[in-house]
């Protein structure tokens, strides 16, 4: 099984390397919005009287958005339109005949798609912490504890995000068109994952809502783990809640996938 | 395969490059789009609701920052002015989306796959057809939210607006939409030179999104770059300035010159690039 997954990952990587220039530019494209965000937050902190907003110093907010940009690419839960159209057009028939479960194949493909980004992200993060931050007199606290917590949170966040993505995408068995629902979900998720602003900046109602929903564990939770804003107890509790949500989404996806396959007519396929 | 692009001007004259002809073609395209959109009314409603949520998320983002900050302004921009800026940015974005938003995203794919052939041989200007083949009707309704906010903010701020303020604002919003269109089109044209251009498109789209921030947050160098070279400041900051300042004639002229220049650059790049097209089918 592992050999199959490894092969799919390598194939995905090779396909993405066909257009190399596009591939390498795509790997670094996240830096541009980040620069805009940093410039904007610099202006915000310049307008602040005490230099701390909702518990975040300027240094911490810059780090927050760097991590948000990196994690957002790795743990994105957007609808996978390739899979959506494959279901609608009957193209998954070809894959259903293969000696591997399609959801597992899809997961391996997703993993192959981000593996190089993961490496480039680690390089950029390392360069920021070791070169850029010291030159800007910004102190980034790194220790084995927060690195371990971050790595564990990231593994969970990636699997969790793919479970949510798959769950959202297989609606295609029932719907010809998502009717803009996916877009609405994406926008709401931006808030609830903490991708737009840290959760602590949100009104109390949204903060409480975010506490009981699974989405902050995709982005905000790994960021807080990296920036030493979580105690060990909070971290373990978070992982447990995330594991419960992950289990719910996996079961939900399993049920929906099997029911969807019964409806699947391989139209046009 | 080569399509005799050197005869482009001659062919265009044969096809009848006149306003009435193009208005008739556009009316037909509009009718087809309307029929298509009405086949999926739920999708249409979903996108209109999505537009409202997108707008509210934008407003909430800045509201959350101002509330957390506890001060009245960020680099000289009050919350009311910031709301005007966000509304103007959204207005110009939806205006662009209404006319061309549905069409431009797929130009690069057409270049790569050879799907451009069909657009080059039709008896209509290819840029026109590629840009306006389909209208995004839901974008029209999504313009309602920013328009309402602009009117509310103007009443709330209590400015005494002149005809020049209002007319200038409208002209500059249209200029902003044309700039959005031209810059996006240019990113698609790059597919003639580099093949798949998703990465470049993501970068340029990200830069376009910087238009929603106040110009005062940028350094002098970036203010210059974002005004004259990659004119994102012209998209939303200029209209708001013209709306709120006493005499905005200079800004109106500057915005119009910049918009015409970028549009002309887009056409020039298209004519140069299309000569490289070899078709893939």
How would you sum up this structure, described in words?
The complex is a heterodimer of chains A (269) and B (281). Helix content of chain A is 71%, strand content 1%. Chain A is an all-alpha fold and 269 residues long. Chain A has a two-stranded antiparallel ribbon. In chain A, helix 3 runs antiparallel to helix 4 and helix 8 runs antiparallel to helix 11. The model of chain A has no long low-confidence stretch (mean pLDDT 84). In chain B, helix 4 packs across helix 14, helix 10 packs antiparallel against helix 12 (198-209) and helix 14 (233-244) runs antiparallel to helix 15 (249-273). Chain B is mainly alpha-helical and 281 residues long. In chain B, 75% of the residues lie in helices and 1% in strands. The radius of gyration of chain B is 20 Å and the shape is globular. Chains A and B meet through helix 2, helix 3 and helix 9 of A and helix 3, strand 1 and helix 12 of B.
Keywords for this entry:
heterodimer, A: 269 residues, mainly alpha, two-stranded antiparallel ribbon, 12 helices, 2 strands, B: mainly alpha, 15 helices, disordered N terminus
Can you give me a brief rundown of this structure?
With 269 residues, chain A is mainly alpha-helical.
